[in-house]
Design goal:
By secondary structure, this protein is mainly alpha-helical. It is built from 7 helices and 2 strands.
Length: about 120
């Protein structure tokens, strides 16, 4: 298994560098790639903040990526992406809410919007 970072995922999704795209594509399509939730958070931030990709497109792109790349608790990531796109919350807040709902974790936060999402 190969841990891939945000730059590999971004080159794969954006395709702005042919050489890097080929390497990223080969690794991702091998079925041997995995990543971390924190790396996905960086990808979301860069796609939306720098490349101005719409939230729904970010969700759809990363959801499709997770068909090929392993990550811990993929159901939490998918739920977080849905919160991010559909509820207009930060991706990390979406992950916290998803962990509370799907994994039963107790989350302590002073963020009122996040707490409302957790309490639903």
């Amino acid at each position: 298994m190969t841990l891939i970072d945000a730059n590999v995922i971004l080159r794969f999704l954006i395709g702005d560098n042919e050489e890097m795209l080929a390497i990223a594509k080969q690794e991702i399509e091998s079925g041997e790639a995995y990543t971390l939730p924190s790396i996905l958070a960086e990808v979301v931030y860069v796609l939306h903040g720098h490349y101005e990709v719409e939230r729904s497109v970010v969700r759809d792109s990363l959801s499709h990526l997770l068909d090929q790349v392993s990550v811990e608790h993929p159901n939490v990531i998918i739920a977080a992406l849905n919160y991010y796109a559909d509820r207009n919350v930060d991706f990390v807040d979406g992950m916290l809410a998803a962990r509370a709902h799907l994994l039963g974790e107790k989350i302590l936060s002073f963020d009122k919007k996040l707490n409302r999402l957790i309490d639903e």
